[in-house]
Amino acid sequence: MNEVTYIILAVAAISLASFLPRAIPFLLPKGRIKSRFLNSFLNYIPYSVLGAMIFPAIFFATSSVIASATGAVVAIALSLWEKRLIIVALGSILVTALVLMVI
Amino acid sequence: MKKTGQSDFSKGVYNGLPIAFGYIPLAFSFGTLAINGGYNFIVPTVMSLLSFTGAGQMAGIQMMIQAASIISIFLVNLVINSRYLVMCLSMNQRITEKMPFWKKMFIAFGMTDENFTVASLYVGKLSFSFFAGLILTSFSGWVLGTLVGALVIQILPSIVQEALSITIYAMFCGLLLPAVKKSGPIAIVTAISVAVSCLFWFIPVLAALPSGINIIVPTVLAAAIGAWLFPMKEQQSDDVKGENSDE
Fold first, then answer.
1. How many domains does the structure of chain B reveal?
2. Per-residue DSSP letters for A7-34?
3. Which of A9, B22, B63, B80 has the fewest CB atoms within 10 Å, counting from its CB?
4. What is the pLDDT of residue B188?
5. Given 3-state DSSP classes, what are the helix, strand and coil percentages for chain A, each rounded to the nearest 5?
6. Residues B68 and B58 sit within 8 Å (Cβ to Cβ)
7. Model confidence pLDDT, tens digit, residues B134-159
8. B152 belongs to a structural domain
9. Which residues of B touch A52 (CB under 8 A)?
10. Is the alpha carbon torsion for B53, B224, B175, B200 positive or negative?
């Protein structure tokens, strides 16, 4: 597979996989999902996928584990403090950049 | 009739503006990530036009940089975006206006975490005009943020470029941790997921598996254990959803 074909297929795959889960529910007749297990499973998915995506990858986000870990601590603290997403992101970027500069 | 439609549209735009501004840094870092990975600015911009999903696009471009297989890119995105199933099921119940197929599909395309949250909490009538204003506004922030991020990266100092790679994880923390703080079961599900994810990162045999499995296995395992140990009560599902909202 050449580079351009790969990019087109990958972009199409990402687009399809982001549209299908959003489109299918709108095609269903209205009514609740009956299975309690399935409901609970679907409800926990966002949290478990976020957990798996953040850790431990956040510690290796930059070339310096120390800088990434400091940025991670700031992000975690601001999140637990329930600051707005934009504040969490900017605070973490700022501290990570400062540590990268000092190291 | 026409007049009410227009004012619903402007209410949608008004509600969409803060979301659009919130998207800019995330879209910006998505654009820079793609450029750092060796792509030109067209690739991330087209992706943002076709997908409108932050976490999925981030994971997608990262896997493309690592030359992961198309099928694993597709599956990881399905898993990451599975949360939209629940949101859209709930939104489908809330929309009372009769609308043609293409209008429903337009709303489906624009149903991000933030648009869902704002629409769910909106007290007025959820008309198509409202959704059109909301979605077109936030989508503009997303696409323009990507384009500008991709074009501007070369003139940014390298330390800033590198520090931007923490953005997505910081945003993920902002979405996840408030919910973890409030709910014991969510905290336990997250802890299981993180523990399994660490196994897949640090154990060489597991780390060598195709990219994406390290996300899918912990996600499905932890959510299944959670559903088995702490099944939710009937009404609870919607309440829990509302907790990790930004706006």
1. 1
2. HHHHHHHHHHHHHHHHHHHHHSPS----
3. A9
4. 98
5. 80, 0, 20
6. no
7. 999 999 999 998 998 888 877 778 88
8. yes
9. 193-194, 196-197, 214-215, 218-219, 222
10. negative
Residue % of chain B over a pLDDT of 70: 90
Q: Provide the pLDDT for residue B210.
A: 67
Per-residue burial over A56-93, b if 16 or more Cβ lie within 10 Å, else e, is: ebbbebbebeebbbbbbebbbebbeeebebbebbbbbb
- What sign has the CA pseudo-torsion A76, A81, A87, A90? negative
Expressed as residue numbers, the domain containing B140 is 2-174
At residue A103, the pLDDT reads 85
Which tokens sit at B188?
A: 């336990």
Half-sphere exposure of B166 (CA within 13 A, CB side): 36
A8 part of contact set with chain B, CB < 8 Å:
no
**How far apart are the two ends of chain A, measured CA to CA in Å?**
42
B101 pLDDT band, cuts 50/70/90, is very high
* Cα Dmax for chain B: 64
**Nearest chain A residue to B216, by CA:** A49
Query: What ipTM was estimated for this complex?
Result: 0.83
pLDDT band at A85 (very low <50, low <70, confident <90, very high): confident
- Which of the 8 DSSP states describes residue B100? -
- Searching chain A, which residue's CA lies closest to the CA of residue B202? A56
